[in-house]
Amino acid sequence: MTASRQSPLARAFAHRSFVIGFALVVLVATIALLSFFWTPYDVTRLVVADRMQPPSRAHWFGTDQFGRDVLSMIMVGARNSIAVALVAVGIGMGVGVPLGCWAAARGGWVDEALMRFNDVVFAFPALLSAIMITAIFGPGAVNAIIAIGIFNIPVFARVARAGALALWPREFVLAARAAGKGPTLITVEHILPNIATILLVQVTIQFALGILAEAGLSYVGLGAQPPMPSWGRMLFDAQPRMIVAPYLALFPGMAIAITVLGLNLLGDGLTDMFDPKLRQQR
Asked: What pTM value is reported for the model?
């Protein structure tokens, strides 16, 4: 069967990057789900007698300065990072996509005003937004979600607007307008289904950036607060102990790298699945 006749799923799994990325994402998601029901040790229990133990059969990834099992903390940290990134991407997509589609449909001063507002929001990175939010409401995972979500809004708005603008002059949209359909109905029935693929690819990109942003915010103390484990917080706590216990930074750093790598490879595979030019080249 030629590449052009293959189903989208078959094309995706024929793409090595997609397969590797999909496997890594499933692995991290499985670990995060497993942490809801089981971890090797209680992450909130402090065992001073076991502090700073190197990796062993009892503690595969060693223990930290409080005697907590590092593997258990990474498992719980996975669900926290995924939850923060997932909700933040949902906020960005839920607000940004309608704004971008509305701007493309209306045009004129509405389009210009929305895009300039997006530029203002985009000028404030997630870290700066988190600092402003936590200065008012205090640090925490919820405030990190809000900060990352606000940062994602202009990203999805720009992607949705660009995709919609390319479709409005197309014949099938002109036919829908001639049939008496309004901008809202055309956007829902014709525009959104045709830009769903580029939005899906953007979701994987923003999800990876959300993982990094959550780790960065936790690293500076603006994310999840102790005793709730976080990959970024684990890196911060490991910093003064890098020489005597490098594993404290190695394992959470690997967790972040594997998750982000998997999402990026997954996005690359999705791009190959939906891009006809790349399909012709393969």
From this structure: 0.86
Q: How far is CA 75 from CA 24, 105, 248, 253, in A?
A: 14, 44, 14, 13
67: nearest Cα among 52, 87, 89: 52
Nearest to 218, CA basis, from 81, 68, 36: 81
The alpha helices in the chain, defined as continuous H runs, are 8-13, 16-34, 70-106, 108-122, 126-137, 141-167, 171-178, 183-186, 192-219, 231-238, 247-274, 276-281
Contact 73, 65 (CB under 8 A): no
What architecture is domain 8-281? Orthogonal Bundle (1.10)
User: What token pair was written down for 1?
Assistant: 């069967």
Using an 8 Å Cβ cutoff, are 193 and 186 in contact?
A: no
| 233 C-beta neighbours (distance < 10 Å), count | 24
Distance CA 29, CA 35 (A): 10
pLDDT digits (tens), the chain, 282 positions: 444 556 666 666 677 888 899 999 999 999 999 999 999 998 888 888 888 889 999 889 999 988 899 999 999 999 989 999 999 999 999 999 999 999 888 888 888 888 888 888 777 776 777 777 777 777 888 888 888 888 899 899 999 999 999 888 888 888 888 888 888 888 888 889 888 888 988 999 999 989 998 888 888 888 878 888 899 999 999 988 888 889 999 999 999 999 999 999 888 877 777 665 444 444
From residue 124, alpha-carbon distances to 98, 148, 276 in Å are 21, 11, 35
Distance of CA 76 to the CA centre of its chain: 17
Domain residue limits, the chain: 8-281
